[in-house]
Amino acid sequence: MSKIITDKKRITELLTRGVEKIYPSYEALEKKLLSGERLRLYCGYDPSAPALHVGNAISINKLGQFQALGHEVIFLIGDFTGLIGDPTDKKAARVKLSKEEVLHNARNYQQQASAYLKFSGDNPAQVRYNSEWNGKLTFSDLIELASNFTVQRMIQRDMFQKRLADEKPIYLHEFLYPLTQAYDSVALDVDLEIGGNDQMFNMMCGRDLLKTLKNKEKFVLTMKLLTDGDGHKMGKSEGNVVFLDETPDNIYGQIMSWPDGAITSALELCTNLPFAEVLEMKQKLISSTVNPRDLKMKLAHEITRINRGEQAAQEAQENFINTVQKKELPTEIKSWQADQDQYLLSDLLFLSGLTRSKTEARRLIEQGAIKFWTTNNSSTIRDIKKIIIVKSELIISRGKLHFIKIIPSSKK
After folding, report:
1. I need a labelling partner for 190 at 20 to 30 A (CA). Which of 84, 285, 311, 350 fits?
2. Would you say residue 330 lies in a domain?
3. 21 phi/psi in degrees, rounded to 5
4. Per-residue pLDDT tens for 329-356?
5. What is the mean pLDDT of each run of 10 residues along the chain (412 residues)?
6. DSSP annotation of 325
7. Position 29 in a domain
């Protein structure tokens, strides 16, 4: 078992950098950490997509900071809660996933999280799946657990009030999500749970249930969310998410496409650069003594480095400079062999792998993010009904750094 580090300066940064709120108080958790007691803590990740993203990495990184101080960390995969779907901030019920879809999505989560957490060696993080206990609950168990929560508490949530006002349905299984997540805290018998500030309701349900069933106090630490300059959340629903399974070029390029207003938030939340240096960069932005592009390049390099290594980050930066700042085509472009002579543009983007879905393809077309290239000139297509005739090689780009070469079916 690793030694518990009680350095006050490190604990202060641990409890302030990127942190929104601590329950019951900052002082209580600080006292516990300074005492040298080893805490057991976790954060849960529902496999709603086949890869984790930079937003998830914020809490994973915070877990890693606790791990570095010697505390016991659990990386929880919500393979059971993922079947329900978290209703937080949702205007309609989530599309339910099958057990097979959930497990397929989660298959590389540990590998992606290993950029921030150690899963071997001294004090390794544990990987747990919440179907281990939730899947064993009987209907009688569920009724007993449900008796600890009121309908009033659930229905008062903002998204449910919005749905009531809009006369949209609220399904009973959505009420069970906070209860199921709450039981994770009981089953794991934790001292602390970490999550985004949008998860505060669910985490507090776990705090209350642990107190009721085991008479144990649980700390709750909520993290700030990654936002743009106007305070709008960045993520999957907003269409500006960066998945951790992307190539180094894609990670770097997507971060460079973020609004300037996201720079300081991301430097604090998504990197381990010295906090004093982050605060200094923030002041330079405010006083306009630095070009925002330069800080964004530093941010993109750092996040790419954490996830793919220094060499890959440097190569991605050089490629960005050549293809975007110098407006040149990449020297190497991935090819895709067409098997027919014409396609609806959105279908072509999806089938060639340039987008993850046809829905994303249509959105990007409407936003003007899709371009066709000839040598170093490009033209934008915004017509989602556009039919593309594939008679010769085509080069298409998504945004500033994603390119694909379409090879006609007749050309071998």
Report:
1. 84
2. no
3. -155, 150
4. 666 788 898 988 889 999 999 999 888 8
5. 91 96 97 97 94 95 97 96 73 72 94 96 96 95 92 84 85 86 96 94 94 97 86 64 91 89 91 93 89 92 96 93 71 84 91 89 89 75 89 84 82 47
6. I
7. yes
SS3 label, residue 389: strand
Residue 242 lies in a domain: no
What is the DSSP-derived secondary structure letter of residue 333? -
What pLDDT does 84 receive? 84
How far is 386 from 370, CA to CA, in rounded Å? 12
Shared-domain flag, residues 15 and 160: yes
**The two three-digit tokens of residue 101, written as one number:** 């879809």
Q: How far apart are CA 71 and CA 126, in angstroms?
A: 12
Q: Please, are residues 239 and 44 in contact by the beta-carbon 8 Å criterion? A: no
Same-domain status, 198 and 86: yes
CATH number of the domain to which 257 belongs:
1.10.240.10
Other CB atoms within a 10 A radius of the CB of residue 107 amount to 11
Note the pLDDT of residue 7: 96
**pLDDT (0 to 100) of residue 43:** 98
* Total domains, the chain: 3
Beta bridge partners, 405, equal 335, 395
Q: Residues 260, 400: one domain?
A: no
The one-letter amino acid code at 300 reads A
Distance from C-alpha of 373 to C-alpha of 182, rounded to nearest angstrom? 52
Domain limits for position 387: 335-407
Q: Which two tokens stand for residue 344?
A: 């609806």
| Cis before 24? omega within 30 | yes
- Report residue 233 as tokens: 């959340």
How far, in Å, CA of 43 to CA of 184, rounded?
A: 10
Examine the domain organization and report whether 204 and 272 are in the same domain.
no
Place of tokens 């407006």: 327
Q: What is the strand order of the sheet 219-223 is part of?
A: 19-23, 219-223, 192-196, 40-45, 72-77, 126-129
Q: Which phi and psi (to 5°) does residue 379 adopt?
A: -135, 140
Please name which of 398, 408, 393 lies closest in space to residue 342, comparing C-alpha atoms: 408
DSSP letter (8 states) at residue 227: B
First to last CA, the chain: 59
What is the token pair recorded at 108?
């590389």
